[in-house]
TrEMBL record:
Gene3D superfamilies in UniProt: NADP-dependent oxidoreductase domain (3.20.20.100)
Upper lineage: Bacteria, Bacillati, Cyanobacteriota, Cyanophyceae, Nostocales
Protein name (Swiss-Prot/TrEMBL): NADP(H)-dependent aldo-keto reductase
Short name of any one Pfam family annotated for the protein: Aldo_ket_red
Ranges where the NADP-dependent oxidoreductase domain occurs: 15-337
């Protein structure tokens, strides 16, 4: 297992991160602890959660993921595990979370951090991320920025000042962003430099064979700011595993259990692109999942690839991708498909 440093922090994270958003819904606490044990034994030292998990988000299950991790974390050597979690922003209108008032301000940050610490049964969080911006941005498959949707927002300087106090108190170590834009990352960096406030050290955005939007503006920002990508959805909601090519009604998957939850992967050219990528995998004696995860892992700006699984067999296959290195020919074939079907599921 390879380990990469996040920005100017002292966090060295495994190139594979264990995502946990199914814990408390599709996975029981026993499933969760089995996965966590296996991942750690394979060299993974990095776990990613969020206060809103599990998904799909509901008031009656909110926080279960962190609770499951917290029960497991009590049996571990804490300083050997890098725990990341997130604060929800106002864009999702969760009426059951802090009464629906989810602005990224001091009171909400303080409460969210304290609640996560309690559920995780730990004194500190290694990487605390803003799940999506406090301001309006297009999210989850939206591709057009529309100024008409702008809303009142907490200034970035005020957000960073609040996080500075929480960091000073020792409750979180480093700050990260998620679902951010080039302008957003640049502003967080600029304002932090200008005011002497905490720098962000990572950005967690979707990145996979069907969604390579990071390759352009955000990749340039990543290079010049040293804010590396924590890539989520490397398998595009499981679609890049190839299991939905002939049947999208497979039982006990997120698509079958939660209809409409993966709409960004039901767009034109998605299925054609998936079939083409699966053919590349077969040609080179790889599973489609290995091809997809290994591609994400190969990008210079990716610091860790976040994988999730609902059973141990899936987890084993996904982690085994660390042993796969894609050669020049495979990468050229992937780029040829990308040229034919560029970002069909942004």
């Amino acid at each position: 297992m390879k380990y990469n440093q996040l920005g100017a922090s002292d966090l060295k994270v495994s190139e594979i991160c264990l995502g946990t958003m199914t814990y408390g819904n599709q996975n029981t606490i026993e499933d969760a602890h089995q996965q966590l044990d296996y991942a750690i034994n394979q060299g993974i030292n990095f776990l990613d959660a969020a206060e809103m998990y599990p998904v799909p988000p509901r008031g009656e299950t909110q926080g279960k993921t962190e609770t499951y991790i917290g029960e497991w974390l009590q049996k571990q050597q804490r300083d050997q595990i890098i725990v990341a979690t997130k604060i929800s922003g106002p864009g999702r209108h969760f009426s059951w979370l802090r009464g629906g008032n989810n602005k990224i301000n001091y009171d909400n940050i303080s409460q969210a951090v304290n609640d996560s610490l309690q559920r995780l049964q730990t004194d500190y969080i290694d990487l605390y991320q803003i799940h999506w911006p406090d301001r309006y941005v297009p999210t989850f498959g939206q591709t057009i920025y529309n100024p008409e949707f702008e809303r009142e927002t907490v200034p970035i300087a005020e957000q960073l000042t609040a996080f500075a106090d929480i960091i000073q108190a020792g409750k979180i170590r480093y700050l990260g962003l998620s679902n951010e834009t080039p302008w957003g990352v640049s502003e967080f960096i600029r304002i932090a430099n200008q005011l002497g406030l905490p720098q962000v050290v990572s950005i967690q955005n979707a990145y996979n064979l069907l969604n390579r939007n990071f390759d352009t503006g955000l990749a340039e920002v990543s290079r010049y700011t040293d804010v590396g990508l924590l890539a989520y959805s490397p398998l595009a909601f499981g679609f890049l595993s190839g299991k939905y090519i002939e049947n999208q009604a497979i039982e006990n998957t997120r698509i079958s259990l939660f209809p409409g939850f993966g709409q960004r992967y039901l767009k034109p050219n998605v299925q054609e692109a998936i079939i083409a990528y699966v053919e590349i995998a077969k040609k080179h004696n790889l599973t489609p999942s290995q091809l997809a995860i290994s591609f994400v892992k190969s990008r210079w700006f990716v610091k860790s690839t976040i994988i999730g699984a609902t059973n141990l067999q899936q987890l084993q296959e996904n982690i085994d991708s660390v042993n796969v290195v894609l050669d020049k020919q495979v990468l050229e074939e992937i780029d040829a498909i990308h040229t034919r079907y560029p970002n069909p599921a942004p």
